[in-house]
Design a protein that fits this description.
Blueprint lengths: L2 H4 L5 H9 L3 E2 L2 E8 L7 E7 H12 L3 H7 L2 H21 L2 H28 L6
Antiparallel strand pairs: 1-2, 2-3
């Protein structure tokens, strides 16, 4: 997520803020999610405190931690997130077929996950031979 941002030092704050706007929840930076029992949309976020994420990003990509901290100021992230949400809503209004495609993908993904879980359960019971 941050690799392309680290190539353009002049725009790094705005670029990073834009990239993480959708991933910041409170004082956490979400790294992804895992599905849990409870339905096709049930999931649990995998997140790290921003302070730890900033340190890791700074070390890995060689980006100054103070620059990252400024990019992640709550007001800056909130404004970018609001803009992104409005742009997405406008896009989906103009392209309703995208929602249908997303739902089809979600259903297929759920079926694949269920099949993998069933196969893993059988393998754990020793019923699958390699």
């Amino acid at each position: 997520m941050f690799e392309s941002a680290s190539n353009d030092r002049r725009a790094i704050e705005d670029d990073l803020a834009l990239r993480v706007a959708a991933e910041v929840k409170g004082d956490l930076l979400c790294a992804g999610y895992v599905f849990v029992e409870g339905g096709k949309d049930a999931h649990k976020d995998v997140a790290f405190p921003i302070v730890h994420a900033v340190a890791a990003i700074s070390e890995h990509f060689g980006v100054d931690a103070e620059t990252l901290d400024r990019a992640l100021e709550p007001a800056k992230v909130a404004a970018l997130s609001s803009t992104r949400d409005a742009e997405l809503a406008s896009f989906l209004k103009d392209h309703p077929e995208m929602l249908a495609g997303a739902e089809a993908f979600r259903q297929k993904h759920g079926n694949v996950q269920a099949a993998l879980a069933a196969e893993l359960a059988l393998e754990l019971k020793g019923e699958v031979k390699h």
